[in-house]
Specification:
alpha/beta, 2,3-Dihydroxybiphenyl 1,2-Dioxygenase, domain 1, 2 domains, 4-stranded mixed β-sheet, 8 strands, 19% helix, 31% strand, globular, VOC family protein
Length: 118
C-alpha cells in the first residue's frame, strides 16, 4: 500500500479570507478560489496543499493538530507574521524555544527556532 499526503483541510468561517491569508504568509499559490473550497499549494504541481472549507461556527478551543514552521530567522518571521495579522497564542506552552501563534481565525501554529548547524 502507498499513501501520498495530498492536503490538510482547514475549517474556516471565511475560507477565501483565511486561504488568502495563508497563501500570503507561506508565499503559496492559489489553485481554487471558490468560497466552498479554497485551495493553496507551494506550487501548482507540488503537494501537500491546504484546502479551506466553510463552517458556520467559529473555532473553539485548542487545535488538535497544528503546523510547525522552521524559519532561518525566528524573530524576523514572527514580526512578519504579526504584521500580516497573526497574533501570539498561549496554549500553556510555558518557556519554550518556539513561538506559538494564531492565524486570523485563531488556528494555532508554531514558529520554531532555526536549525543549528553542526
Amino acid at each position: 500500500m502507498s499513501l501520498e499526503w495530498e492536503q490538510l483541510v482547514v475549517d474556516a468561517v471565511d475560507p477565501v479570507a483565511l486561504g488568502n491569508w495563508w497563501a500570503g504568509a507561506l508565499g503559496w499559490v492559489v489553485l481554487n478560489d471558490a468560497h466552498d473550497e479554497f485551495e493553496i499549494r507551494p506550487a501548482p504541481d507540488r503537494l501537500p496543499g491546504l484546502i479551506f472549507e466553510p463552517v458556520r461556527e467559529p473555532k473553539a478551543g485548542k487545535n488538535r493538530l497544528h503546523l510547525d514552521f522552521r524559519p532561518d530567522d525566528q524573530d524576523a518571521e514572527v514580526a512578519r507574521l504579526l504584521a500580516l495579522g497573526a497574533r501570539h497564542a498561549d496554549v500553556g506552552q510555558g518557556d519554550v524555544p518556539w513561538v506559538v501563534m494564531a492565524d486570523p481565525e485563531g488556528n494555532e501554529f508554531c514558529v520554531l527556532a532555526p536549525r543549528r548547524t553542526p
